[in-house]
Structures are given as C-alpha cells and as structure tokens.
Design brief:
Elements (H helix, E strand, L loop, with lengths): L4 E5 L6 H14 L7 E5 L5 H8 L4 E5 L16 H6 L4 E4 L2 H7 L3 H13 L3 E6 L3 H5 L3 H12 L5 H5 L1 E5 L13 H19 L1 H6 L2 E4 L7 H5 L6 E4 L6 H8 L4
Parallel strand pairs: 1-2, 1-8, 2-3, 3-4, 4-5, 5-6, 6-7, 7-8
Bound molecules: 1,3-dihydroxyacetonephosphate.
C-alpha cells in the first residue's frame, strides 16, 4: 500500500515569521493525523527556521528547487546537501512555474533529481500539460516526454526515492481542478508508463500526487481515485486550517 503524501508548496509567499507562525498552528491541527505523510515547502530563506519549528512533529520539510552541483562558482544556486543541512527531507523539482519562467527543461529536471536523491532527499518530480497542449490532444505525449526525460537513467533505487506530481498547468491557481476522472486518467497513464520503464512492482510502489486547485472540498474525491496517492497543494496550503483539512482528508 502507498502512504498518501500531502505536500504544501508555499511558492513565493511568507516571511520567516509568517512561516514559523503557520507551522505552529498546523502542528496542532495535524498532531493526530496518522498514515499520511505531510510536507511543507517554504521559500529557501525560511527553511532552517521552519525546520526548527517542526522538530518533534509529523510534518516534514521540502525545498521548492535545487541545483545539481554540490558546490562551486554558481552564484545564486543552492545544492541538495545544503537543503539537507537546513533540515529538508524532500525537494520539489521541475514545477511548471520553473519550466515556464526559469527555463527548466526535462534535462535539468533529470540532473537535479539525481543530485537530490544522491544527497538523501526525496525528489518530487512535477509534470503537466498546458491548456493549449490539452486542447490539441497532446496531454499524453507531453506527459510521456516529461516523465521519460525527467527520470532518464534512473535506477530502481533512485525511482524508489522519487514521487511524481501531476499538475495540469491549466488547473494551477485557476480554481479549475481537473475532474476526478480527468486526473485519474492521467495518473493511470503515468503508472502504465512507469510499468513499461521500471516494471510492475516498482510502478505499483510509486506515489503519484495530483496538483492544481486542490481544496478541502475536492480532496476526498481526488484521493478516492485508484492512482491518486496524494496532493501537491498551492493556494490552499497557505492557511493552517485549509491545509490541515486537506491533510485530514480521510477523517
Ligand atoms: P494551486 O493549488 O494554487 O492551484 O497550486 C498548485 C501548485 O502549483 C502546487 O505546486
């Protein structure tokens, strides 16, 4: 059985005080939540202070990106081992906003994911089609290219330390969630690709998260789908009560 993973991507929101303040509230609200992995992803500058606030809780810490080199003359970059140093267990890689605004490619996603995993992090690798691609009936082709590129050369061990997040770009921040059936269709497709690439049992063990306007009132329907194993939440993860309600989807 796959343990559900609910991750909050805070994007470019929250000062250190706001982040630690929210985490304090969230800890109480999810203290009794069992059988769900809960992760929050603040901005880089808040990571280490949020890590301190999370000590002894059942909430884990993610960064929103990383670089693939360990150190060197790379102004502005952050290495995976420094994320571990700051208290992270996870890192989001290849979010559509990074692909769209910062030139992230399947090749850089692949390098980042491998570097993150070798530093001991769990890589949350994001894929997703734009509205134009969906309307042109290219959803499966786009997802296949992103997935194969992002996971190129992965060993079974590297795969086991990864999570896939399917985030249709047209559903991000728009309030337009994919329907349960639309999301499930792509998740099942992703799992079938994983079967072809890595075999049945590795594919069965993989968690595939859905992201795109996940809210407390639609999470249950999404989570009831066979191949949806969690959520990557943007807007609704910024408030403790709504994120806790999503993390507590089963209760
Ligand atoms: P929203 O939940 O705000 O649509 O954002 C989704 C997302 O991009 C999470 O990574």
């Amino acid at each position: 059985m796959r343990t559900p993973l609910i991750a909050g991507n805070w994007k470019l929101f929250k000062t250190i005080d706001e982040a630690t303040g929210m985490v304090k509230e969230l800890k109480t609200l999810v203290a009794a939540t069992a059988g769900v992995e809960i992760v929050v992803a603040p901005v880089f500058t808040a990571l280490s202070r949020v890590a301190d606030s999370l000590t002894g809780s059942n909430i884990r810490l993610a960064a929103q990106d990383c670089f693939w080199e360990e150190e060197g003359a790379y102004t502005g970059e952050v290495a995976p081992k420094l994320l571990v140093d700051a208290g992270c267990s996870h890192v989001i890689i290849g979010h559509s906003e990074r692909r769209q605004y910062f030139g992230e490619t399947d090749e850089t996603v692949n390098k980042k994911a491998k570097a993150a995993i070798s530093a001991g992090l769990t890589a949350i690798v994001c894929v997703g089609e734009t509205l134009a691609e969906r309307e042109a009936d290219r959803t499966f082709t786009v997802i296949e290219t992103q997935l194969k590129g992002g996971l190129a050369g992965f060993s079974a061990d590297q795969l086991a330390k990864s999570v896939i997040a399917y985030e249709p770009v047209w559903a991000i921040g728009t309030g337009k969630t994919a329907s349960d059936a639309q999301a499930q269709e792509v998740h099942a497709f992703i799992r079938s690709l994983l079967v072809n690439l890595f075999g049945q049992s590795a594919a069965e063990a993989m968690r595939i998260l859905y992201g795109g306007s996940v809210k407390p009132d639609n999470v249950k329907g999404l989570m009831s789908q066979n191949d949806i194993d969690g959520a990557l939440v943007g807007g609704a993860s910024l408030k403790a009560d709504s994120f806790a309600a999503i993390a507590n989807f089963a209760s």
